[in-house]
Structure formats: C-alpha cells, structure tokens
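Reviewers asked in the last cycle whether our approach scales beyond single polypeptides. To address this, we selected a multi-component target totalling 368 residues and predicted its structure end to end. The input consisted of the following lines:
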Amino acid sequence: MAIAEVRVYAVPLETQNIYTMSSSRVATPVSTIVALIDDDGTVGFGEACLATPHYQSEHNDGVRAALELLGPAMLGLEAQRFTVVNAAMDATIEGQRAAKAALDIACWDLAAKQLGQPVVDMLGGARSDHVVSYHVVGIATPEEAAAEASALQDQGSTRLQLKTGGRLIHDDIASIRAVADVVRPGTDLAVDTNRGWSTVEALQVSNACASITMSLEQPCATEAELADVKANGHHPIVVDENATDIRTIARLITSGLANGFGLKLTRLGGLTAMRAVRDLCMASRVPMSSDDAWGGDIIAAAGVALGATLDPRLSRGAWISHPYHGVHYDDANGPRLDGGNVTLPAGGPGLGLVLDPDQFGEPVAVYR
Ligand SMILES: [Mg+2]
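The resulting structure, written as structure tokens, was:
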C-alpha cells in the first residue's frame, strides 16, 4: 500500500460569531483540506486552518504554497509509517508545520481506516468517551464578559478562557474581576492575552488580581518576559504561542517556566508530534490542551482524539471552532459541544468522520 494521489482543497469557514483577541480579529479563514488517496482506494483526510495571519508564524495561503512541495513528496509513502512520513516532509522543506500537520493527520486517518481502527485507539485509547472543552469569552466590557461567563457555565462549561490585551489594562482588570465574581466552584479560569501585554502590564494585572484563582495564558510575547512574570507575579503561567516544538516544550517544563500548555496541532506539526508532547506532558504532570485555533470537523476530530487520551486531571480541554462558524463537513459525526464536552466522532474507523473528497468542490491542486 502506498499513497498514490494527494488532493488539496480550499474551504472558507466564515465566522458567525466574530471574536476578538489582543492583536487580531477572526473573520473568514480559508481552511486547507488534504485528501490522501492510497493505491488500495482508501482515502485519509487532514486539515490546517490558521485563525488569522497574526496568530502564528504561518498563514493559510502559505499552507497551500508549502503543499506544492510537500504534496509530491508524499507519493509512494506508506501512511502508517508516521516516522518515515515526517522525516520525508522535514527533508523536503524546513518548518511549515501547519502544512505538515494536515498531511500527518491525513496519514493517521488513512492508516487507521486501513487497519479498521479509530485513530484514538492508535493513539493509545480514550480515557473517557467525551473530552472536556474550554470556552472563549472574547474581549468585551466587564458586564458583557461576566454575562457570557455565566451563560457558558449555565450550558455546562467548566473551563473558561477570558481574552485580554489590546486595551488599557484597567479595562482588562475590570473584566477579570467581573468574570471572577461569577466563576463557580469547579470552573477553571484562564486569562489569555495572546502575547498582548508587556511584562509591566502583566505584573500589574497579576498584582491587582492576586487573590483571584486563575492562570495567565501567554501574557507576553517572549520566553524571557514570561519568566519575569512567572518569577514576580502571583499566577501560574500557561504557554501557548511560544510552545512551538518538542524541544522548546521540554525546556519550558524542565526550567519550571510552564505550568501548563495550550497546544495546537498545526503549530507542532500534527498528531505524531502531539503524541510525543502528550507523553512528555503527562509524565511531567503538566496540563495541556489538544486542539487548534480554527478549522472544521477534520482538525477538530484530530484534536479531540488526542484529547481523549489525556489523563482527565491533566487535560486543559479541547477547543473546537464549530460554534463560531457553524459548518460541519459531516453533519452526523462532526465534533460538537454537548454540555461543556465534545464527544468523539463515531462514524467508523479513522477520525470517525464520513467524508467524500468531492464534497469540498474542485481541488486547488492534485499530485499523482
Ligand atoms: Mg491561547
């Protein structure tokens, strides 16, 4: 068995409920979907979709450009040889982990289908049949943020992520306090600034909110700034945007800087890399999330599959963007929120989705 054809599709995922982060606003990201067609006819699907051009060091047009080199490099490879596949991709082009993630996820889907198994079983098996999710409260007035936090908890959410940054820190502090006032026992609050504060601002917020039980997620842009906030502030530090690869994550754990991670499949390079990081985090007792910053059912199913294998006590949750764009590629099995959790897709082997390449329209590229 060998990969005989690679198809690339571009699928716009228009937001229905726009939310704003410190540096950018999510509008209509164009998702890249890859279909790997094996010479036995089995099809594996992968996806990469960057929320905005500012969120990480890649963007959606760049993903498709990288696939012009990576697509042909997949031909003749055996999907289940994940190490060989990743080595071939790394030998083809440096970096470009979002494009590599799409192909790596497609290999997992393809190999699992060929073996007649769910991807989650190949990743080690689910620790539960649902995966806790976390929910974003966008940058808003204190009253609006508190109302949304209450409504989310009414719906069953137990992990809240309040976005901050990009405005006066007094406004951020007011929103944090308003949300903290409505946070209920059993609900975890992370304040995510997406790199938006200076160390002075982060420390002022941490001092002003010293009595509030919360974590600070990526308050500043660099490791050195995060180390300053960790050493001189009052709150645990969750690293998201700086958690770029396995070596960096290992260093952030051993240095004690990171108390937790927000991890994205497209930033690490797919399920093969995420599996290694999972084992490192679980062995080190460091909580992590398993998700991506945007995208449809395919990347969501991959994030939820890996999220299901986490020790539930060390899971920061699997976020899915479906509530923000409302698009399902598979209406019956696409991952969706249910009372603060996401259920694993149950549409059969692989990622559990029932998909047809033709549903994504004309491919923008075909390699065979
Ligand atoms: Mg984050």
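The two ends are 15 Å apart (CA to CA). We regard this as preliminary and will revisit it once experimental data from Aim 1 are available.
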